[in-house]
Amino acid sequence: MKKLFILSLLIGLVLAQTPKNDNYLVGITAKLSHIITRDSGQKVKIERIQDVENVLTDDFTKTSRECPPFCIQPTKIDERIKNIGELELIKFINTKISSHKGVLIDTRLKSWFELETIPSAINLPFSVVENASKKKMGMIFGILGMKIKKDGSWDFSKAKELAIFDNGVWCAQASHFLPSLLEHGYPSDKILYYREGLQGWKLVGLTTLVHKEIVKK
Question: What is the Cα 206 distance to its own chain's centre?
Fold first, then answer.
């Protein structure tokens, strides 16, 4: 009887953490309607736009940009880094970020980040880490959970898992960001790359956040 009670309790907890598609015309999956995350101290619901007639009308509708600099990027920035898609990133936000074990990094310049980004992302522009000194990278890695041993070496055993992104397949900002992390020793098995970026996120109608409104004159 006790085992049945515990089993029922565990099932209840799992169901409570897996929102159903009740009253959702457009779910994330057939069984997942939304997740809840936090951004700037506020709860944010990540879901898909419910209007099935909705289309993108902003800058992310462009098919072509000057190349360089906006050239199509390789599928794999580095063979050691695992690529992920939308569902894997949603799972990362819902599990790793919620448990403070992971960090979602928007590698774009601050002006891009402020205009629109993925909820719960922090901004660490590629320009900050590219060609950075070991001292500067040590400070950045310290924020991400790396510890400095007594002998001065770096201990990444408790470093956070990272998911990184930029604008999408035509954007090189993540391509500049990642090598700097690897060069200074951040473990490749703790890094995930969301290649589709913000454009891919928006193409499936997922929630985005604006941190700074652009005033039109």
Answer: 13
> pTM (2 decimals)?
0.87
- The CATH class of 34-203 is alpha beta
DSSP letter assigned to residue 36: E
Sign of CA dihedral 52, 93, 42, 115: negative
Give the tens place of pLDDT for each residue, 2-57: 443 343 433 343 434 445 556 899 999 999 999 999 999 999 999 999 999 999 99
Cβ neighbour number for residue 22 with a 10 Å cutoff: 7
Which is it for strands 191-193 and 82-83: parallel, antiparallel or unpaired? parallel
Conformational region of residue 152, where left means phi above 0, alpha means psi within -120 to 50, and beta covers everything else: left
Tokens of 195: 């290649």
DSSP result, 165-192: E-S-TT--HHHHHHHHHHHTT--GGGEE
